[in-house]
């Protein structure tokens, strides 16, 4: 089968790899759609994503959906319990906690904080955990999430990043009627806008340097957009801010935009290592600064919200065939193309 494989910095290939063999406890999924994430681009551009450094060739992709083509004998009972059979359309929870660890009781349900997690398309561990940018992938039945009838598999491939956004919104607490700033309107920021709107936020401001990204944010539910490159100023005294750009230099302005006693959720990945940022107002304004990492099971919430009418289609700006993956990655890496989420047609 063909797969999108990164071999190192600036070395991305679409190549033939062996078809996976379905073990008795696994389910075989034929992939239909995948969304290119910033971490996928980072492996291609830098040979690393954050602290995860590429050591061996890696099949990329953790935002995927498709349909079941084979169920191992040992997985049949669990698949039946989940309503999964051959032909069922599914997306995949890409995380697998590993290692023998003891979590504090108050963190037991926050599985995203487990010390060791193997994740689709990640080089964090050796051997690396191959992703889903291929025609076929075997998974455990508990990783499957059934796609509702009113949601396409193309849309379902975005349940994973939408789950990230929903987790970030949950970290902020109740947003009902509250004023919200989303700084950074790339794919995650735009999905945070949609998640905040779905969770009852009042006025939502979206900020970005790209007019195209701001237009997508408007379509995803932002009431007002701010472009600092055009001289726009961030709003003042918002109750909650989501920093989704991952740019340390943006932090000072975001902190200043939040009212005293407000909340900031950091959802954009900050660079590895030390960063320089203006943080003084965290103290004098007594602002809660909270991290947000991946998700627990908000991927299931994402599917439900999409079935209930949350439209993620404005995010999907480009579509390419699997064999044209290099072109798709180039689009995803170049915001001047107007790209947000570039979708790979995997089969």
TrEMBL record:
<dbReference type="Pfam" id="PF00107">
    <property type="entry name" value="ADH_zinc_N"/>
</dbReference>
<dbReference type="InterPro" id="IPR036291">
    <property type="entry name" value="NAD(P)-bd_dom_sf"/>
</dbReference>
<dbReference type="InterPro" id="IPR013154">
    <property type="entry name" value="ADH-like_N"/>
</dbReference>
<dbReference type="InterPro" id="IPR002328">
    <property type="entry name" value="ADH_Zn_CS"/>
</dbReference>
<dbReference type="InterPro" id="IPR011032">
    <property type="entry name" value="GroES-like_sf"/>
</dbReference>
<keyword id="KW-0479">Metal-binding</keyword>
<dbReference type="GO" id="GO:0008270">
    <property type="term" value="F:zinc ion binding"/>
</dbReference>
<feature type="domain" description="Alcohol dehydrogenase-like C-terminal">
    <location>
        <begin position="187"/>
        <end position="307"/>
    </location>
</feature>
<dbReference type="GO" id="GO:0016491">
    <property type="term" value="F:oxidoreductase activity"/>
</dbReference>
<keyword id="KW-0862">Zinc</keyword>
<feature type="domain" description="Alcohol dehydrogenase-like N-terminal">
    <location>
        <begin position="24"/>
        <end position="148"/>
    </location>
</feature>
<protein>
    <submittedName>
        <fullName>Zinc-binding dehydrogenase</fullName>
    </submittedName>
</protein>
<dbReference type="Pfam" id="PF08240">
    <property type="entry name" value="ADH_N"/>
</dbReference>
<comment type="similarity">
    <text>Belongs to the zinc-containing alcohol dehydrogenase family.</text>
</comment>
<keyword id="KW-0560">Oxidoreductase</keyword>
<dbReference type="InterPro" id="IPR013149">
    <property type="entry name" value="ADH-like_C"/>
</dbReference>
């Amino acid at each position: 089968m063909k797969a999108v494989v990164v071999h190192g910095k600036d070395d991305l290939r679409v190549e033939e790899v062996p078809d996976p063999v379905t073990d008795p406890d696994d389910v075989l999924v034929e992939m239909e759609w995948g969304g290119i994430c910033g971490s996928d681009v980072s492996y291609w551009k830098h040979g690393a994503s954050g602290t995860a450094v590429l050591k061996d060739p890696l099949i990329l992709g953790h935002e995927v959906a498709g349909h079941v083509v084979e169920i191992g004998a040992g997985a049949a009972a669990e698949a039946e319990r989940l309503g999964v059979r051959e032909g069922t359309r599914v997306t995949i929870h890409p995380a697998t906690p590993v290692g023998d660890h003891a979590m504090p009781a108050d963190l037991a349900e926050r599985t995203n904080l487990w010390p060791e997690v193997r994740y689709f398309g990640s080089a964090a561990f050796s051997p690396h955990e191959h992703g889903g940018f291929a025609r076929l992938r075997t998974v455990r039945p508990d990783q499957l999430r059934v796609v509702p009838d009113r949601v396409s598999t193309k849309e379902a491939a975005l349940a994973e990043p939408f789950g990230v956004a929903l987790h970030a919104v949950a970290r902020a607490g109740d947003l009902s009627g509250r004023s919200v700033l989303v700084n950074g309107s790339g794919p995650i920021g735009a999905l945070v806008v949609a998640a905040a709107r779905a969770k009852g936020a009042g006025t939502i401001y979206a900020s970005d340097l790209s007019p195209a990204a701001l237009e997508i944010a408007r379509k995803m539910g932002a009431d007002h957009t701010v472009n600092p490159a055009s001289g726009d100023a961030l709003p003042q005294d918002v109750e909650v801010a989501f920093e989704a750009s991952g740019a340390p230099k943006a932090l000072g302005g975001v902190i200043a935009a939040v009212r005293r006693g407000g909340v900031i959720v950091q959802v954009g990945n900050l660079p590895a290592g030390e960063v320089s940022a203006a943080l003084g107002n965290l103290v004098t304004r007594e602002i809660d600064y909270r991290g947000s990492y991946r998700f627990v099971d908000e991927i299931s919430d994402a599917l439900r919200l999409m079935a209930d009418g949350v439209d993620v289609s404005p995010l999907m700006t480009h579509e390419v065939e699997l064999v044209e993956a290099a072109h798709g990655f180039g689009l995803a890496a170049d915001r001047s193309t107007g790209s947000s989420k570039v979708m790979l047609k995997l089969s």
